[in-house]
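Give me the fold.
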Amino acid sequence: MMGPAHSLSGAAAWLGVGAAAAAAGHTMPWPVLVVGALITAGAALAPDLDHKSATISRAFGPVSKAVCEIVDKLSYAVYKATKGPGDPRRTGGHRTLTHTWLWAVLCGAAASVTAVTGGRWAVLAILFVHLVLAVEGLLWRAARVSSDVLVWLLGATSAWILAGVLDKPGHGADWLFDAPGQEYLWLGLPIILGALVHDIGDALTVSGCPILWPIPLGRKRWYPLGPPKAMRFRAGSWVELKVLMPAFMILGGVGAAAALNVI
């Protein structure tokens, strides 16, 4: 899928988690709901770090472009080193390493550890990166015609404000993990969810997605999971733009209302 659809699906997924938590009697503090949705929207773009033409490659100028090239080469090297006898030859690393459950879990775990051990500036950095990506995904039309510096300023300002809100008692810095020293340990969860939602979205397209790597399926270690081919679509097609994106908006709205006990 394209960047905007990935971000919308990510935000809708976190709002759905919030609705499920409320139904189970463990309502999220509203700052956690909002910040989690934005982080998931940003994290849902991150698996495309292996693609130099993806939305994320433009998000941070030359830095993100350089990172994308490095990740593409790393992913390709891992693919060549681990592919099974049934896996096809490839010329690049797109939709390999960064599109797996293992990558999602490792990224989320790294973010949680960084947030807990790195203090406030680490939390701000995590928020800044994902809020910039959320702007690039959710407000992509405005972001395309705006200056990168303005988008970065918006991300930095929002990160500072939201971190201040979360730090207030009862607003969620210690949500889910409330032992001393575990503040913001939950930040890795929306990052994992965003990456997995991205992978599921790509699995719906014609190429499928090797979500289960390194678990082999038959003669393939990079098996491209997906529904029957007749049910798949091309990225950017009318199915994505006219059906899925409106559906994500509706589901996100319903999830938010349910999470906040409005309905």
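The mean pLDDT is 92.
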